[in-house]
Fold this sequence. Notes:
alpha/beta; Aspartate Aminotransferase, domain 1; 2 domains; 3-stranded antiparallel sheet; globular
Amino acid sequence: MSREGALLVRAKQEKQELEDLAVFGGEPSLDDKLYVGRPNIGDRERLLERINDILDRRWLTNSGHYVQEFEQKIAEMAGTRHCIATCNGTVALELAIRALNMTGEVIVPSFTFIATAHALQWQEITPVFCDIDPRTHTLDPKQVERMITPRTTGIIAVHLWGRACNVDALEEIARSRGLTLMFDAAHAFGCTYRGRKIGSFGRAEVFSFHATKFFNTFEGGAITTNDDDLAAKLRLMKNFGFAGYDKVIYIGTNGKMSEVSAAMGLTSLESIDEFIGVNRGNHAQYGEELGGLRGVRLIPYDPDEQCNYQYLVLEIDEEETQISRDDLVQLLWAENVLARRYFYPGCHRMEPYRSYYPHAGLMLPVTERVAARVMLLPTGTAIGHADIRTICQILRFAVTHGADVTQMLRSSRPPGMVTR
């Protein structure tokens, strides 16, 4: 029997009693672990052809044939004049921040991956954490205005879950207050804002092509911009400041993308419509399976915008479900569904920021509420329809019996035990 067939059989063996849940000693619903962010793999034969060509050329890095082709295609997709490919998204952030001469204080969301804040702090720039819109989970422009001080030089907004920030409002704030605006677009490759591709907003936008992203280059990132001078500066900075064979004219570092990463990127581009189609279908199935389940909200995507549907995001309202987000995560892990809390507990509650700003949470009530509610589930080409059906059946059962599950978890959990 095929794996899909076996999963269909297993999916029919639904949880009937609380003791059927693996967290209480029952058999896990899935034999194999399902991860959030499992890599999508395109045409392996095409990738291996490119890798063999790289080996034949004996040009493995330093802006070779495949990196140049990759940069050209990413710029075309983003609708920009320039794409500067990098070894990863974090280095891309650091390069863009430095090239834009950000100093002092820069306003960022706390509800983001820690790299957004670290890229500033690493360069002795103070990240000023700003609250988010409860509906979009992105920077709230009204709150941004409140956080501006005489030391503020810039804003780094994050397009979260592939849903764009309020770009127009942020650009107006930046213009009127003389601030530099750039975007962390790690989640948003292939997405649009008001019909325009993300990549050309602000002074620059930064993408991540890490293996966990729906579109990956194994490991990699890129900066896109329409600013010719900024692009030239970034190209110097990512290659030690070299402006010729033995001519260094600027301070720089090693931020280059390798040829093999570019080969993976080009191969992934050839399958990008398939990846997005699978994600879209998965999102629709989750929506159908979980529709009407009390206290469980599937984050929607705007049908009028292009989106990569990269993340399957739920908000859990514990008052309605009578079971917490953290308890649901624990329960799912026992079933081999490795659900994740994103971006828990918020950058402001991670070091060194919680020591620097112990009372930051008072200014971030929406961030704290959302961080306690958000849960991500597996999607992408590594899971099938039967997997989704099984995950949703577990969730329906757990929420339907939320109070009883919570009581059993509390009685079976040793005092002082910390949940995942």
